[in-house]
Hints:
Number of helices of chain A: 18
CATH superfamily of the largest domain in chain A: Aldehyde oxidase/xanthine dehydrogenase, molybdopterin binding domain
Strand order of the largest sheet of chain A: 3-5-1-12-9-10-11
Oligomer: heterotrimer
Amino acid sequence: xxxxxxxxxxxxxxxxxxxxxxxxxxxxxxxxxxxxxxxxxxxxxxxxxxxxxxxxxxxxxxxxxxxxxxxxxxxxxxxxxxxxxxxxxxxxxxxxxxxxxxxxxxxxxxxxxxxxxxxxxxxxxxxxxxxxxxxxxxxxxxxxxxxxxxxxxxxxxxxxxxxxxxxxxxxxxxxxxxxxxxxxxxxxxxxxxxxxxxxxxxxxxxxxxxxxxxxxxxxxxxxxxxxxxxxxxxxxxxxxxxxxxxxxxxxxxxxxxxxxxxxxxxxxxxxxxxxxxxxxxxxxxxxxxxxxxxxxxxxxxxxxxxxxxxxxxxxxxxxxxxxxxxxxxxxxxxxxxxxxxxxxxxxxxxxxxxxxxxxxxxxxxxxxxxxxxxxxxxxxxxxxxxxxxxxxxxxxxxxxxxxxxxxxxxxxxxxxxxxxxxxxxxxxxxxxxxxxxxxxxxxxxxxxxxxxxxxxxxxxxxxxxxxxxxxxxxxxxxxxxxxxxxxxxxxxxxxxxxxxxxxxxxxxxxxxxxxxxxxxxxxxxxxxxxxxxxxxxxxxxxxxxxxxxxxxxxxxxxxxxxxxxxxxxxxxxxxxxxxxxxxxxxxxxxxxxxxxxxxxxxxxxxxxxxxxxxxxxxxxxxxxxxxxxxxxxxxxxxxxxxxxxxxxxxxxxxxxxxxxxxxxxxxxxxxxxxxxxxxxxxxxxxxxxxxxxxxxxxxxxxxxxxxxxxxxxxxxxxxxxxxxxxxxxxxxxxxxxxxxxxxxxxxxxxxxxxxxxxxxx
Amino acid sequence: xxxxxxxxxxxxxxxxxxxxxxxxxxxxxxxxxxxxxxxxxxxxxxxxxxxxxxxxxxxxxxxxxxxxxxxxxxxxxxxxxxxxxxxxxxxxxxxxxxxxxxxxxxxxxxxxxxxxxxxxxxxxxxxxxxxxxxxxxxxxxxxxxxxxxxxxxxxxxxxxx
Amino acid sequence: xxxxxxxxxxxxxxxxxxxxxxxxxxxxxxxxxxxxxxxxxxxxxxxxxxxxxxxxxxxxxxxxxxxxxxxxxxxxxxxxxxxxxxxxxxxxxxxxxxxxxxxxxxxxxxxxxxxxxxxxxxxxxxxxxxxxxxxxxxxxxxxxxxxxxxxxxxxxxxxxxxxxxxxxxxxxxxxxxxxxxxxxxxxxxxxxxxxxxxxxxxxxxxxxxxxxxxxxxxxxxxxxxxxxxxxxxxxxxxxxxxxxxxxxxxxxxxxxxxxxxxxxxxxxxxxxxxxxxxxxxxxxxxxxxx
Lengths: 761, 161, 290
C-alpha cells in the first residue's frame, strides 16, 4: 500500500452522522410530529385503466375525525414531470382527474385526526369508474390495436432514443461471427427501509414547510412550487435524515403532493406515510425491458458492430424513465470500443406502475445482456473471457464517438487483477463456477432536463471565530455518506482537522441549491463545489497570514492539519484557530465565507467522468432444484482517488447486495396490471446469511475532473452482478439464462429444455 | 373495547400507560413514550426495524401487543448508552461504518446486542449472520455489520482492551 | 388496521377455558401472536374478545419421559425448543427445524401451540411433528381429548378445534430404536417459509429392512400430508438408490400442490421429488447407523 499523501482523505473516519444514527436519535420524516398534526391517507385505483365518472366524499366527510377529502379537482390539475424542459413528458397529475392508468394510482386523499380514522374514511369515498381495456406489457402496448393510455400518444410510444456511430452495416460486413439474442429484464423495487413519507405544514401566510424523505430537496421544492402555484422560495423542504433512496425518491410522490394539498386546504400540518404495500405498488421501479442484441466480431475477438433494440415497460407515466431509456442504450456499449454501434430504444406506456430510475439507471439491464452475450461469443469462438474484454476495453483518453471522452480508465488493471484472482482460486468443485462482468458508470449527469437555473452543485464555507467551519451544501445525504465525504474534502482543502467541520444539508432554506443525490453525482459535483468554497476561504486566510507574517512574497503559504505555515519552512507558522481569530478582527468581525459551485462544461453529452470495474461472482448451482448460492463476489474497482474509505467499502458491498437481489431473488411479477408480491414476505430481499463475502480490490487512477481525482462509486457496482451471476451459471452448466432475475425454476426449466434439445438431435 | 393498564420498565424506568389493548409494543414505545429509535418498515413482521429487547430477548415490536409485556423489562436503543459511554455494539457500528441510511440501525443494534448477550463467543461469522437474520438492511449488504459484531465478540471493546 | 377488541388475560388454563366457553365464536386466542397479529392487521381476523394465553406458565414446559416421550406445553417458545439440550439429544430434527424457522425475534416470542393452531400449510413444525407421530392435547371446560397431529388439520387454515377448545400440549412419542427423522425445506433465503418441505422418518429392523416410514409433505397440499404411497414403497425393503429415486417420483405424484408466484405446480412436484429422494436417503443412512 502506498503512503497516503492526504491528511484526511482516504482515511477511516466515523460517519459525521454516526452518533445520531447509532443512538437512535436521527430523526427521519417518519419520526416528525408537529403540534396539531393530522394524518393523511390516499385512496388508490383498484383498476389498471378506467375513466373516473364521479367521486363522492360525502359519507367520508361525515365520519367523526375526518377533516378533509381532496380529489384532483381540488388541485390546479398541473401535469408535472421531472423532465420539466419538455412539456410533453410532464404527464402525471399525481391526483388524477379524468383517468386512472395503473392499479394504485391516487384518486383522493383524506386528512383526519388519526391515521386509523383516515384509513376508515377511504372506504367511505364512493368512486364510480368506467373500466377500460388495459395493457400491461410493452410488446402488446406498442401494437396498433392496443388501448391508448395517454390521449394522442400513438401506439403508446412515450419516448424514443437513438444512438449511433460508425457505419453499422459496413462493420457487420467486416465481422466474421455474428450472434443475436433476445433478453427479458424484470423490474425491481427500491425498497427503501423508510417508505415514502411527508409532513407538510402550510401556514396562512402562504408559506409551506415540507419534511420529506427525498434524494433532492431542491427538486421537490421546485416541483411542489409548480403544482401548488407557490413561489419556489416560499417552500422549505427539510430532509435531515433519509431512510434510503436508490433512485426512487427524487420525483414528486403522492405523499408530498397530497400532504401539501391537504395542508394548504386546512392550514394544518398533515403527515402521510406510505405503507409497505403502497411503497411497492404505487411508487416507481427499475424499468423492465426487452432487449434485442446483435453483435458482430472478428474471429480474434475484436468487436466490430453492435445493434440493439430495446422496448421498455414504461408503466403509466414518464418520470425519470426517459433518462433510463437513454442511459441503458449508452451503457450497453460500455466499457468497450465499438467500431460501429446503433441503439434504438422505445419507452412504451403500459397500465402498470411507472418505471423509472433505480441504482444503475438502466445499466444493470444493459450489462446483463451485453456481458453474458460476450461470454457466449467467447465460448463459440474458443476465446478467453478476460482476453476478449481486454482486447476491446476502454482506455484513458478514448472518445465514445459523439458521446463522451474518458478522462481516466483503470479497466485493464481491473481485468488483470480479476484474472489473477480467478487463477489463484484454482479448480472449483462441481457445479460451481466463476462468472465475470465488466462495467462502467457515470459520475453525475450533464443533462439538464430539469431546466435548473442554478449551478448543478453549490457550497458555502463559513469559518467561525473558534475555527469551526460551517459547510452548507445542497447535496443530500441519503445514507451514502455524502455529508462525511464532503466534510472530508472540506477539511482537506482547508487544511484543518475533520472535527472542525460541521455539515449542513437537507434544508432548502439554509443550503444552496443542488440537484441532489442521484446519478452518482455528489462526490464529484458537490465535491468540486465544496473544494472550491474551502479553497476560497483558505485563500482569504492565507492573504491575511501573508500580510501578518511579512515573508518575502516569493514564499508559498499553506495550511495542513490546523497549522498555517511557510511551505519552504514548515516549522514556521501558527495555529489555524489563532489565525482565524486575528483574521476576523481584521475584517471588522465578519466571518470568513468561501463560495464554490460546479456545473460541468465541455464534458460531452453524458457525464464528466466514468468509473470502471470488473466483478467476479463465484456461484454454486444445485442442478436438481435450480437453487443458486453466491459464494463470493469480488470486485476490482476504479473510482479514481478514494475519499471516504469506510463509506466506499460500504457502498460497494451494499451495491453487491442489491445487485445480487436483481440477479436471482427480487422477482416482481405483474399480472393484469397488479404487482403480485407487494410485501416483504413474498418479495425477497437478501438477508445476512445469504450475503456473500465481498472482496474489493482498489485500482489506483486519477480523474482530472474530480475533486482530488475522485469519481463515482457505489451506484455503478449495481451493474455487473446479475450478468456475472449469469456467466457463472453458464460456465458451471452451459445454460444461457436470458431473463433476469434468474429464478431457480427457470434454471430447472432450462435444463429440461436442454435435455429435450439433446434428445431430438 | 376496554382500555388496559400497562405497567412496565423501559430502559430501567417504570412507566404506566392506559391504552387500547390493540396497541402494539412499538406503538406504545414510539407514540406514547417517545422512544422513536425503533421504527416500522413493514406490516408483515419481516423487516426487524422495530426490534427491541423484552426481558433481554430480541423481539419485533410490531408483533407483540403492548399489554403482553405487562410487568416486563424493555430495552430500546435509547437505553444502551450508559454514563455517556456508547455500548460496545454502538461503538463498533461507528468504527466499522456498519450503517448507511440508519433506518434499520436501531433494530439491528438491538438484535446484535441481544445476540451477543446470548452468544458472547459465536463460533463463526455465519452464526453472527443468523443472529441478525430477522433484520433487513437495504444499504450495507450486512458485511460491515457482521464485522462490527465480530469485533465486539472478539473483545476489541472490552475494558482495558 | 387492527379492529378493536376486548382483551382478556386469564390467570390459568381453567380461566382461559371458561372464557372460551363463554364467548365461543366471539373469542380468539392469542399466544405469541407472530402470525395472528399480521392477519389481524390485514383485517382478515376480527374478534370481539382476544384471550391472551401467552402468560400461562403452566403450559410453558418441556418434559421428557422415556415411556411417554416429550411433552411440549403449548406456550413454549420456538427458541426454548431450539435451545433445549434435551430436545437436541432426543429429537435433533426438531432443533434443526427450529433453527431455520423465521428469525430469532419470531422464535423468541412465538410459541409451538400458536404455530400449530395457526394451520399455515407452509409452517415448519407440523410436518416434522407429524413425521414424529406427535399428538396434540386439547382441553375445553367440558373436558379434554387427544388428536394425532396428522388429523388436526381438516383443511387450509382450519383445525379440528371447537371455539371453546385450546391446545394445551404436544406429545411426541419416544423415538423408536433405529429410527431417524430428517427435514428439509426448499426456499431461496435461508429461513424463509418453504416453497415445499419434506419430513421423513424411517425405522430400520435388525435385519436391515425398512420397518416403518412416515413421510410428510409441507406446502404440497392445503395441509401437511402423509405421502402414503411413497411410504408403502419403502416399508419391507432394503433401500437403495433406485428406491430413493422411485420414492421421490411417487411423492411428487401424490402431492397436491398449487401454483403461486413462487413456484408452478410442476416445479413444486419436481422439488418434492428431489427433496423426498434426498431426505429418504439421508434418513435411511442415519437410521442404519443408530
